[in-house]
Amino acid sequence: MNAQKISINRPAIISDRDFKQFQKFIYDQCGINLAPAKKTMLTARLQKRMRALSIESFKQYYDFVTSAKGQKQELAHMIDAISTNKTEFFRESAHFDYLSKNVLPDLHDHSATKMRRRLHIWSAGCSSGQEPYTLAMVLDNYFSALDQDDFAILATDISTRVLQSAQKAIYTEEDAQGVPPALRRRYMMRGKNARKGLCRVVPELRNRITFQRLNLVARTGFGLRKAMDIIFCRNVIIYFDRATQITLFERFFNQLAPGGYLFIGRSESLHGINDQFIPCAVSVYRKPRHDEID
User: What domains are defined for the chain?
Assistant: First the structure.
C-alpha cells in the first residue's frame, strides 16, 4: 500500500497504523496519552509540520522525527504543534486568594527565620506566562506590605514556542482584563502609538521569573536542585495516564520542601494517585512538615 501523501486540496487522514506509531512515540517522549478520538486533531497538527518540511507522507515524517537528526531538529517543533496551551491571568482565582490568605502566612509562621530567606515557587506547565506573572503579582503585593520580597519563580513548559512568548511578557489589553484593576495599574505598562492595545508586565516582575524548557515526565526526572516551597501544576495531569500521574506526583512530593504546597486544577484530584500529601482546600495540598511525620 502506498504511503498517504499530503494534498493541499484533500488532506489525508492518518492511518490507524501510523497513528499508533505516533501515539506510542509521543507518549514515550512527553507522557501525553492521545486517545483515538484525537486522531483528526493529530492529523491536522502534523500536517502543518510536514508542509513546512516538504514531507509528503506521515510515514516519512515519522521516520524523520524519530531519527537522530530529527530528534535534534524537529522533535521540539512537533511537541509544540501537538501541545494544547490554554491559560489566562488569575485563572481559577480562588487559588490565588488561598495563596495570599493562607499559604503565605503559614509559610511565614513556620519559617525559623520568619521568611527572611528566598521563597521558591514553580509554575509547571506555564504556557504563555499568565500563571507565573499572576503569581509574581500576588507575591510582590503580599510581601511589599511586609517590607520584604525575596522570592523567585521558575516557570517551565515543554513547548519552546510558548516559552518564547512568555518571556516577552506582552499581552493584549483584552488578555489583561483578568488582572484586578489595582494590580493592572501597578504591574502592567500600557502600550502607546504603534503598541496601543498591548500591555507588558513591568520589568521588576519579569526579573523575578526564570523560564526554562522542562519535560515533566523525562526519565531522568526534573533535574532541579532547589527544593520548592510552592508548586503550581494545574490542568496538566488530564493529559497523562494513571501510571504517569503516579510517577509525576511522587516527583512533585520529593521536590517540595517540608511544609510546601501543591496546587492542581480545580477539577483535578490526587485521590488514588498520591496519599502522602495533606489535603488543605479544593485542589490544594501540603507536604507534611518534619514534626508531622510519625
Answer: 16-82 (1.10.155.10), 94-292 (3.40.50.150)
Mark whether 45 is an active-site residue. yes
d(CA 294, CA 289): 11
Q: What are phi and psi of 212, to 5 degrees?
A: -150, 140
Q: To the nearest whole percent, how much of the chain has pLDDT over 70?
A: 92
Active site residue 157: yes
Annotated catalytic residue, options 140, 157, 208, 286: 157
How do beta strands 188-190 and 198-201 pair? Answer: antiparallel
Task: Determine the 3-state secondary structure of 171 from DSSP.
Answer: strand
- Tens digit of pLDDT for each residue in 86-106? 789 999 999 999 999 999 999
Please report which confidence band the pLDDT of residue 174 belongs to, taking 50, 70 and 90 as the band edges.
very high
**Length, in residues, of the chain:** 294
